[in-house]
Amino acid sequence: MVTKVGPGRFRTRKGVTVRHRVCAGGNCQWFYARPDARLRPGIHAYRGFRSTAGMPQERLVVPTGRVSLLIGFGSEMRLRRTGRGEVGAAAPAHTSVVSGLHTRARVLGHQGDLHGVELALAPWAAYRLLGAALGELADTVTDPADVLGSRVRDLGTALEAAPGWPERFALLDEALLRWTADVAPSHEPSPVVLEAWRLLDDTAGRLPIGELADRAGWSVRHLENRFREQIGLTPKRLARVLRLNRAIRLLATGGGAAGVAADCGFFDQSHLSREFTAMTGLPPGRFLAARSGASPWLAG
């Protein structure tokens, strides 16, 4: 049994929400489910996807302040950064990727058929799960096997062979609970970093960094160093990403640029426009006009 829960959204009996969209030459589907409660809030949702566009596709991927673990089922994708001198630049092909935190948008391209599942991880959860200093993954895209070893390849094989999305999401629960149970004490995030990240995330990057350091009881320099290790970006750079995401949400729901700039902590409307252009490659108006082409895949 499938129940309609909104325009283009359906919920199956086993708790999987399905979304459909017609794209050039074919269809795109997304499959969502919530992880086991023990994996939350570090992983908010599982997101399966299948694109059968039938022709090459490109999508803009905007920084989100989350780390992406994307496990693909055979088809390849390419990711390149936006910006002058980088359009058309060669990019390596990937089937699966770990994408660290980014401060600039990228373009995701594929040949029209893309199938797999993505986990968008809070950075502190990625620090635990990946067992690597997140500063080494910032502004990079790499093969998950380089970080997680053969177990992620084995998981990908099992996911691809599973008969449906409920079974795939159950496999993810099982694997991730097992992996997190094996986390070394040295890769447990600091409670101080966790609280500082929560304050920054809850305020969408509007809390002054000096105040954040004072609340942590650390110097700004020490907070920066610990954030690079356990979050991936300094608080200041992460705050830029969080402010951008809040501005996108407010503008997309009809907020005026001047009011959104003030609400999100920008100096003025010009500052908002400069940050949009620097981080997405487009000023706000053009970005919103092209937003239907933004990718639902790949955090960062």
From TrEMBL:
<dbReference type="InterPro" id="IPR018060">
    <property type="entry name" value="HTH_AraC"/>
</dbReference>
<keyword id="KW-0805">Transcription regulation</keyword>
<keyword id="KW-0804">Transcription</keyword>
<dbReference type="Pfam" id="PF12833">
    <property type="entry name" value="HTH_18"/>
</dbReference>
<keyword id="KW-0238">DNA-binding</keyword>
<feature type="domain" description="HTH araC/xylS-type">
    <location>
        <begin position="194"/>
        <end position="290"/>
    </location>
</feature>
<protein>
    <submittedName>
        <fullName>AraC family transcriptional regulator</fullName>
    </submittedName>
</protein>
<dbReference type="InterPro" id="IPR009057">
    <property type="entry name" value="Homeodomain-like_sf"/>
</dbReference>
<dbReference type="InterPro" id="IPR050204">
    <property type="entry name" value="AraC_XylS_family_regulators"/>
</dbReference>
